[in-house]
Structure formats: structure tokens, C-alpha cells
Amino acid sequence: MRRVIILGSTGSIGVQALDVIRANPELFEVVGLVAGTNRETLDAQAAEFGVADTGLGAREAEQLIHDVEADVVLNGITGSVGLGPTLAALEAGRTLALANKESLIVGGDLVKRAAAPGQIVPVDSEHSAIAQALRSGTAEEVARLVLTASGGPFRGRSRAEMATVTPREALAHPTWDMGLVVTTNSATLINKGLEVIEAHLLFDVPYSDIAVTVHPQSIVHSMVEFVDGSTIAQASPPDMRLPIALGLHWPARVPGVGMPLDWTTAQSWTFAPLDEEAFPAVALAKRVGRAGGSYPAVFNAANEQAVAAFHAGRIGFLDIVDTVARVVDLHEMPSEEVTVESLAESELWARATADRLIAG
After folding, report:
1. Are 108 and 176 contained in the same domain?
2. What is the 3-state secondary structure (H, E, C) of the chain?
3. How far is CA 6 from CA 3, 77, 114, 154, 248, in A?
4. Whether residue 267 is found in the same domain as residue 304
5. Residues 137 and 281 in one domain
6. Has residue 178 got a pLDDT over 70?
7. How many CB atoms lie within 10 A of CB 204?
8. Residue 306 included in any domain
9. 172 confidence band (pLDDT: 50, 70, 90)
10. What are phi and psi of 329, to 5 degrees?
11. Is residue 254 included in any domain, yes or no?
């Protein structure tokens, strides 16, 4: 029986995690729940699962992690506000099932230094797929990682054809049901850029050996290519409950958590190279990742401001990544060692700079 704390319990990841736990009461016990602002839903979840310890916001999450005995902390918070709870979970010695990619990306070496070997288990479908595929060989046998991308709602469009797209169109993701920020990031492919940085940090593979391929069906969730020319892929219908269950019960699988592929029906899977002219976010993310330090924090914070401005009708769709690139170009890394406090200052600078550029 694993005792689980869920951060972001009222969001998409948290709700699906509770689905997994509800179906497997012999495997999991919920001992803590934290939400952003939705107290009514949080209280209903706590009542259903018999949870005494709950909280609202990242600060209360950090305190709850230290106060409540748990085996696993699922961090399903959205945004860099998840960094504090990620560090708290690692410092408390909990297994961290990480769906909050921003905390690893922003925290970088801070998070890696705090983590014991194997303490972080990825929950993003792409990184869960890579973690599964990596069981097929040793680290020395890995040639490269291949992240798959659905391509979002604007797959196949040129840059010019995306100039007038609307927020409603950007939220019409063809495969996944996600929140506003993540869905928009998937449309710009900022999300895939963040995942490239995350893959580098999780698996210690150089950026030059991390590739992205466009796979509209979202059946193959990512692949590992080995030195002998073999490629191992993880394939399943697009259902986040599978990687969530693996994150909660790693390295063991949870029986029946997802439906397998139906091999009795004809189906076609396609793969295509990424159009980096139309979608420059991945190349920008690699540049940011190589720079390291506070650059990923600036990249992420500027994007959050630009996404908010796009949905408020203040900038166009293409201006999102263009604004992020301009903020990155203006950033100068602080000379002192990176700390949680210095990262927060860099984020504040990035948000203010993005707002100033957006305002014109």
C-alpha cells in the first residue's frame, strides 16, 4: 500500500490520479490533497477519500509534504510555482511522481542536486515512455531520444497561415484534454520545447541527441534509439491514466489501468519531421537549455505572460514565441550562484520584460 499526496488534485492530472486510486484501493491510500483555489471540489475529494490533510496553494503544499508521512508525492501543479513543492518532496525523501515539468526545467541543477538516484519518476506521457523504453538497454547503449509531438491543431500550416488564428482555435487540441496554458503551449510547440529540456535533465542525454518527430495519432508516446540501430517505442491509446499509474507505482505496472491497442482493426501511424520555420519553439528551447542557469526560468515565465496576453486579445498567436525569444535575447544571467531566490527574481524580470514588450 503506497501512501500518496496529490498536488493539483482538482486539475486534470489530479482528477485522473484519483480515478486510478479509486479503482485500486488495495494499492494506494490518499493521505494528502492540495489544490490551487477550488476549495469546494477539494473538500469533496477529501470527504470521498477520507483525507484529513488538505491545503490550498504551493506554500501549504510544502508544509503538508513535510508534515504528512507519504511514500509518493504526485506534483500535478501547473507552472513554476511547483518548484517549491518539488524541492520539498525531494528533501523529505518522498518518491516524486513529476507531472509539473516546469519545476524541473526552472529548477534545473537545484532539483537534480536535491534528488537521489531514481527518486524522480516522470509522469509526462513522453518521458514515461522514454523511461519504459530505457529498460531495454544500458545508458552507454543509448544513441538518442526521440520525443513525439502531435503537432497540435495547426500541424501542417505555414507560419503565415497561423498569423490570424484565434484563442479558441489554439485550444482545439486534436488529441489531449488539457488546461489553457498547456493546450496553448502544445499549439505553439513551446510544450515540446519544455519537454526537450526536461528529457535532457531527467535522462542526462545531450541536446544534440534529443530529436522531435511529429506523430499526429499520439499512439507512440516517444522512443529510444540504441547504438545498434534498434529503436524501442512505447505505444498505447492516448490516456494519461497509464503514465500517472506508473508514476504512482513505479517500477511496477497497475493491471487494467488503460485499454490496450486493438490489433484486430487496421490502423496507420505516421511520422514527419518538425517544421522548425513554422514552429521555432523547440530550437529556441534547446538554446535556452544549453545556456542553463536562469535562462529556462526566463523562457518559461515569459511564455506564461505571452500566453495570458494572447488569450486576452493583446497579441497574436505568432507573437507568443516571438515575445519569448526577445525576452531570452535580452536576459543576462546573474553572476552569483543560482538559488530559489535568484530564480524567482529572474522570473519577475522576465514577466515584467514580457509585459513591457507586449505593451509596445
Report:
1. no
2. CEEEEEECCCCHHHHHHHHHHHHCCCCEEEEEEEECCCHHHHHHHHHHHCCCCEEECHHHHHHHHHHCCCCEEEECCCCHHHHHHHHHHHHCCCEEEECCHHHHHHHCHHHHHHCCCCCEEECCHHHHHHHHHHHHCCHHHEEEEEEEECCCCCCCCCCHHHCCCCHHHHCCCCCCCCCHHHHHHHHHCHHHHHHHHHHHHHHCCCHHHEEEEECCCCCEEEEEEECCCCEEEEECCCCCHHHHHHHHHCCCCCCCCCCCCCCCCCCCCCCEECCCCCCCHHHHHHHHHHHCCCHHHHHHHHHHHHHHHHHCCCCCHHHHHHHHHHHHHHCCCCCCCCCHHHHHHHHHHHHHHHHHHHHC
3. 10, 9, 20, 33, 10
4. no
5. yes
6. no
7. 10
8. yes
9. confident
10. -65, -30
11. no
Which residue segment(s) compose the domain that 117 sits in?
2-123
- Segment 92-104 shows an average pLDDT of 95
Last residue of one domain, picked from the residues 123, 141, 156: 123
CB atoms within 10 A of CB 273: 9
Residues 161 and 226 in one domain: yes
Asked if pLDDT for residue 50 goes beyond 90, the answer is: yes
Extract the C-alpha cell encoding 176: 489531449
